[in-house]
Design a protein that fits this description.
The chain is of the alpha/beta class and 979 residues long. The protein contains 31 helices and 33 strands. Strands 6, 7, 9, 10, 11, 12 and 16 form a seven-stranded mixed beta sheet that branches. Strands 1-25-26-18 form a four-stranded parallel beta sheet, with helices on both faces. The protein has a four-stranded antiparallel beta sheet with strand order 5-4-17-19. Helix 7 crosses helix 17, helix 20 crosses helix 24 and helix 21 packs across helix 24. About 2% of the residues have low confidence.
Length: 979
């Protein structure tokens, strides 16, 4: 027989292409979104919905976007779109951090040092602004290419006048409240960038440093030892002549020899025990040591004597004993006030103090203390009234205060000081160590600590620390929850915040100095004048206008009455600038729907010491509340092996390259597939796996669209739950359960669970089972048969759920799916017509299912199908074994005998055989009772129907003797006559 039945089959038809060609098609879709103003359309649709505002953390406007930017912005888009899809009002205003040293540095590099030295500040600021504007435009296009919705034409930029005015408003509140002060304190200083740095601008990496043990000559034995009868004469070792004086020292350990010129104290642990060690001087080795000769008394922590002796290479030593022959031990606090000669400034006398920060983990238990070079040292100075020396200038060079080492760079000074200590006999030991050391986050070079006059936010004067910690634990939801402990410990332990910077490109600190007496001039009226100046003319006016032009004439110095005011030269820390966005953006742009506090801040995990912290400190300081209701952080992007990406390693992934090769939706699907709360890996192989996952999801959409080509939900939907086939009712229940899982995952911001649930559903329940088993009905049944319309009704429900719940993730592809909806799935014009974009379609809920899922029936069905699918798995394996053994070619020709225990059999026999024939895709299924589940495969005695390829009795329809009865009836219905 030569008849072809292909034309009688109803095969899938759709214009939705199998090959996505995303790199070419996504830009066209972006143009469509721009034309239809989709961002504004979504806001208009949800105008009466509950607001949800994700406030954007500003990336730095310096260079094209990198994979970390893409990861961050796509996550934000997931959050915003998932809320918008659920009906929330979701304005999203992207922003950029445009001030700061990196831009100033790039302008300097572009100009060259000679031109830079001659340029005036207004011109420099103009060039910096132009540089920032250039990269704002470049990054904006990069972010838009990712498919991120937002008010891209009206972003917030930290250099615009209104934003700059917000800085002054917050400064005013904190200054008048008493939280701000100018003081001389040791801070991180970058000698290359010539500016102070805050904790958030510090990164740590390993550094090789000199580790030296130095002895400071005591003026006299500590009184605690002298009172116990220890004498500086006749040490008892036999190495000194009777009655000769034994020199006594305190032994310190340091890794910063360049700070020794600033030494004014030695700090010991108050409760630790200290001893005097009588030691013979060791010969210097190749790495450095003391000169040969004599005996000396060395003061060290008792617990560290052995380790110090090994480092110092003492040939003979003993711990000084009391009258009873026991080691004489003295508490650290009893050493208070003992004096010594400072090692470099030998015209100065230092003294021993105690502090809880001293540990006995390493060193000698006696810490070299230079109050101008460290926070803990500075606190010791305040507590014990120590001099604060600062023999280092802005360039990192030692000043005349450093005596013989004047003019040396701090790095160059280290070996020179070590050699001098060796020559003078003060060096006990020296070696190189690798340790973690603070570096500038901009130039990535080691920083130094130096005391300078700076502006600070006090953490404790107005209880800012306590208030902020309370806000962290009581007001804010942290995602993940443990992040609360992370930022909480940082706030609890942080020093006062240094907010002044010695640069040009930024918002100036809005106070004045009296020209006559040097006192600070700042009050409510002066601040208001500056706020108005910045709001109308921008911060540039600070550098071009005389204060007399905008400050009221009655604003004078409170100390001397002088009215000649000099503007402060320093600018604000960029973390302060970005931190006040809660005011300069959220509060100032409330008329656009932004809210204070914002519903969410989302940035990288490093922002617990950066933007998250600067934002909450300024907000709590100014308003008494956190600026956000929730904070979500993401990890860093690493290469496929988990290594940090860098240009030098050549392991970076450029998002632009990914989009050129695979498309933005593949990148978005990768973001959805990873647990963002941890560091995430990306590489070529990972992206290939993501592309394969995308292909499977896309093909699922294609099958759904093609299978619904002739379906009109108004005419053809099966609206009675009981009229659906059993398999169809099971499939409807599965898609409803998927909807519930996905909705819960979105609410918990667990996008990787959204991905996993959809992907596993697509591959398992949908593709491997339901789509496979219903193809016979879709292709072979009569177009309007109840069996076919039942399957199509379910497929419509599946499509409606999958296209809407995946719209926040696969924004390009789901809109393409929506665009290719068959005419019968589109809403009537009377109902508003088919919406132009899936982002306007809203979120599906249980009430949208057609027909409504019967909860009671569905629960029982799912229990039964747990058994049925277990049997199907066993049948599938048996069929595969039979194919491998060449006992059959296709499952359709098989007969199946399922042997099952009684309890399982009762469930199976509750349903009729056609269910199993369709579910297993076989010719016949029989059951029998057995102790264990087993499957036997046989061959059907029937022939293969040439139309549907099922093995059935042929000729049941007298008009069509060569096909099965079902196919014959269909051929009759369509008037087909065999050739």
């Amino acid at each position: 027989m030569g008849t072809s039945y292909k034309e009688t089959m109803i095969l899938p038809q759709t214009n939705f292409a199998m090959r996505a060609n995303l790199p070419e098609n996504e830009p066209k879709r972006l143009a469509k979104w721009d034309a239809e103003e989709i961002y504004w359309k979504v806001l208009e649709k949800n105008a009466k919905g509950t607001p949800f505002v994700l406030h954007d953390g500003p990336p730095y406007a310096n260079g094209p976007i990198h994979i970390g930017h893409a990861f961050n912005k796509i996550l934000k888009d997931f959050v915003v779109k998932s809320y918008a899809q659920r009906g929330y009002f979701t304005p999203y205003v992207p922003g950029w951090d445009c001030h700061g040293q990196p831009i100033e540095h790039m302008v300097e590099v572009t100009l060259g040092s000679e031109k830079m030295a001659k340029i005036d500040q207004p011109t420099l600021r103009r060039l910096c602004r132009e540089w920032a504007e250039k990269y704002v435009d470049i990054q904006r296009e990069g972010f838009k290419r990712l498919g991120v919705n937002g008010d891209w034409e009206h972003p917030y930029l930290t250099y615009v006048p209104t934003y700059e005015a917000g800085n002054v408003e917050i400064f005013k509140k904190l200054y008048l409240d008493g939280s701000l002060y100018r003081g001389r304190k040791p801070i991180h200083w970058c000698k290359r960038c010539h500016t102070a740095l805050a904790e958030a601008e510090i990164e740590y990496s390993d550094e090789s440093s000199a580790s030296i043990y130095v002895k400071f000559a005591l003026d006299a034995l500590p009184s605690a030892f002298a009172a116990a009868g220890v004498s500086e004469a006749a040490g008892g070792s036999g190495d000194s002549e009777a009655g000769s004086k034994i020199p006594a020292y305190v032994l310190i350990w340091t890794t910063t020899p360049w700070t020794l010129p600033g030494n004014t104290a030695v700090t010991v642990a108050p409760e630790a025990e200290y001893v005097l060690v009588e030691a013979k001087k060791a010969e210097a080795d190749g790495e450095g040591g003391a000169e040969t000769g004599g005996v000396e008394l060395i003061l060290v922590a008792a617990e560290l004597v052995q380790s110090v002796a090994e480092v110092a290479a003492w040939e003979n030593y003993r711990v000084v004993e009391d009258a009873n022959g026991k080691p004489l031990r003295v508490k650290g606090r009893e050493l208070l006030g003992t004096t010594y000669t400072c090692p470099v400034r030998q015209d100065l006398t230092g003294k021993i103090v105690f502090g809880d920060h001293v540990s006995l983990d390493t060193g000698t238990g006696a810490v070299h203390t230079a109050p101008g070079h460290g926070q803990e040292d500075y606190l010791m100075a305040l507590e014990f009234d120590l001099p604060i020396l600062m023999p280092v200038d802005d360039n990192g060079c030692l000043t005349d205060e450093a005596g013989r080492f004047s003019g040396l760079d701090t790095d160059a000074a280290n070996p020179v000081i070590i050699e001098w200590l060796r020559e003078t006999g003060m060096l006990v030991a020296a070696k190189k160590i690798e340790h973690s050391y603070p570096h500038c986050w901009r130039c990535h070079e080691p920083v130094i600590f130096r005391a300078t006059d700076q502006w600070f936010v006090s953490m404790d004067k107005t209880n800012l620390r306590e208030k902020t910690l309370r806000s962290i634990t009581e007001e804010v939801r942290w995602i993940p929850e443990w992040a609360s402990n992370r930022i909480g410990s940082m706030v609890a332990d942080r020093p006062d915040w240094c907010i002044s910077r010695q640069r040009s490109w930024g918002v100036p600190i809005p106070v004045f100095k009296c020209a006559q007496c040097g006192a600070t001039v700042a009050n409510e009226e002066s601040f208001d004048a500056v706020i108005e100046l910045f709001r109308t003319e921008g911060a540039d006016a600070w550098f071009t206008k005389n204060p007399q032009e905008y400050v009221p004439t009655h604003v004078v110095c409170e100390s001397c009455g002088g009215n000649e005011l000099i503007p402060e030269k320093d600018i604000l820390d960029v973390w302060w600038e970005s931190g006040v966005s809660h005011t300069s953006v959220c509060r100032y742009r409330a008329d656009e729907g932004l809210t204070f506090p914002a519903d969410m801040y989302l940035e990288g995990s490093d922002q617990h010491r950066g933007w998250f912290q600067s934002s909450i400190l300024t907000s709590v300081g100014a308003y008494g509340v956190a600026p956000y209701k929730s904070v979500m952080h993401c990890g860093f992007t690493m290469d496929a092996e988990g290594r940090k990406m860098s240009k030098s390693a050549g392991n970076g992934i450029d998002p632009a390259d990914v989009m050129k090769q695979s498309g933005a939706d593949v990148l978005r699907l990768w973001v959805a597939s990873v647990d963002y709360s941890q560091d995430v890996n990306i590489g070529e192989e990972i992206l290939q796996r993501t592309s394969e996952a995308y292909r499977r999801i896309r093909n699922t959409y294609r099958f759904l669209l093609g299978s619904l080509n002739d379906f009109d939900y108004r005419l053809h939907a099966v609206k009675d739950w009981d009229k659906l086939t059993v398999i169809d009712r099971w499939a409807m229940t599965c898609i409803q359960e998927l909807l519930h899982e996905v909705e819960a995952a979105y609410k918990d911001y667990k996008f990787h669970l959204v991905y996993r649930s959809v992907y596993e559903y697509t591959i398992n329940e949908l593709s491997s089972i339901y789509m496979d088993v219903c193809k016979d009905r879709l292709y072979s049944e009569a177009a309007d048969s109840l069996l076919r319309r039942s399957a199509q009704t379910v497929l419509l429900n599946i499509l409606e759920v999958l296209v809407r719940v995946m719209a926040p993730i696969l924004s390009f592809t789901t809109d393409e799916v929506w665009e290719n909806y068959p005419q019968g799935l589109r809403a009537d014009e009377a109902d508003g017509g088919h919406l132009s974009n899936v982002q306007l379609a809203g979120w599906p809920d249980d009430g949208d299912f057609l027909p409504q899922v019967s909860t009671e029936s569905a629960s029982a069905l799912m229990r039964d199908f747990a058994v049925i699918l277990e049997v199907r798995e066993a049948v599938t394996k048996a069929l595969e074994d039979a194919r491998n053994e060449k006992r059959l070619n296709k499952s359709q020709e098989a007969t199946v005998l399922v042997k099952a225990p009684k309890a399982m059999l009762e469930v199976l026999e509750a349903y009729e055989a056609p269910l199993y024939e369709e579910l297993f895709i076989v010719a016949r299924v029989d059951f029998s009772e057995a102790d264990d589940l087993a499957v036997e495969i046989g061959l059907s005695p029937d022939e293969k129907c040439p139309r549907c390829w099922n093995y059935r009795v042929l000729g049941g329809n007298e008009n069509h003797a060569f096909v099965c009865e079902r196919c014959g009836d269909v051929l009759d219905a369509i008037g087909f006559v065999e050739a």
